[in-house]
Structure formats: C-alpha cells, structure tokens
DUF4145 domain-containing protein (Rhodanobacter glycinis), 254 residues
Amino acid sequence: MKVTKGFVLFFISWLVAVYFGIGFVTKASFPPKSDLLIGDALFVGLTLFFLFLPFFDKIKIGSWIELERKVDEARKEAAAAKDELREFKAEVRNTVSVISSNNVSPQFNIHLADMLRQQGEKVDQNLDQKGRAKAEEVTKELQADDDVNFALAKVRIEIERLLRMILGRSFMVSTSGRPRFLSINSMFDQLVQQEPSLAFLREPMRNVLSVCNAAVHAQIIAPEQAGEALKLGALIIAAFKQHPGAQAEATGPE
C-alpha cells in the first residue's frame, strides 16, 4: 500500500480528534452531564475541528491565520515549471552547441543531422500512407521557402498550434487563480496521457524544437541540419494532423 500525504493527513487529524474526544468523554462521562458540557465545549470543538480538517480546502481563523491545501494544483504548476525549465535548458544547450560548432568544428552539425535523419525514419514507420503523403506535402511547402530560419520558425508555430487545437486549451489555472500558458512540452505530456501511442514523438519533437528555437534566435544552422529538421518537423506535423482532435486541412503550416 502506497502511503500518500493525504492519507497521513487523514490519519493524524483523526488520531488527534479521537484523543480530544476521549478526553471529553473521560471528563464529562457518557452521556455527558449538562453542567460539564459547557465547561468542556473546547474538547468538543477541537474534536470536530480535527475530525473534518482533511476535508477543508481552506482554513481561515480570524484575519491573521489562513491555510490553504491545494496539493494537486501546486503539483501541476510545479510540473509545468519543470517542463519549461527543461525546455529552456535544452534551448540553451543547443544554442551553445551551435555556436561552438560554428567556431570550432562542423562535425557536430553533421552528427546532429544524422540523428535527426534516424529519428525521422522511426517516425515515418509509425505513420500510415496518408500520413506519409501529408508529410511530403508539408516538407515541399517548407523547403519552398527561401528563408530557412523562417521555415523552421513555422514548424515550431504549427506544432504548438496543433497541440493547442488537439487539447482544446492553451493554459492552466495556477494556485493563485491566474491563467498560465502551457509550454509545448507540457501540452505534449498532457496529450501523451490521453494518447500513449504518441509517446514515440517525444524525443524527435524536442530535437526539432531545439533546432527551431536556435533558428528563431538567429543562430546559424548548417544547411544539412536545417534540411533534416524540416523533414522531421513535417513528419511530426503530419502525425498530429491525423489526431481526431485536429481539424483536417488541405494545406500545411500557415
């Protein structure tokens, strides 16, 4: 049996409630005498308080003590923050790698291009004939753009747009009650919870977004690396377009 924080709170609260309840019964006897009931009302109040404590979302005593218990919301917000931090670290890591490869050696770009190509082959194997046709169509439209950085930016925008469309929402409500926009990784994690079969897109998507983010920040991307990123991005877009939550479109990314 897995012991959770909620179970511990229930156990401790009810244990204290039983303690005060026994104390009241010991002093007032059972049934309680009327002359002792008023004097020992504190025992009754404490017993009821700790008995119902696990069911309270907010406890406020006067204007100087206010306790809130919103564990699930806090965990979701913390998980979203971790995802955004992971995405930021990946972006920084890719930016540093691209700068280093431009100044030191071109071999890193070649290696990354090979990795993108291999991941593209795996994604292609998970698509049906219709999905492959859509991927080829999107690839042609992306490669037709003279500005490679702009084409990579469109890949990122389209992936994010499709995720928001599939999930039907783009933000979550934080514990403070304010709407908070979800990162791409957070939205993808939610999608995988609904559709575990799409988990194979996790690493390919992160690698493509890493290249796209570098392009958005005006970093120099090797032509071979950019070309493979566009192809892999088109495959990911095609996979998302096949999801029932995404509207069928005749064109690729806008």
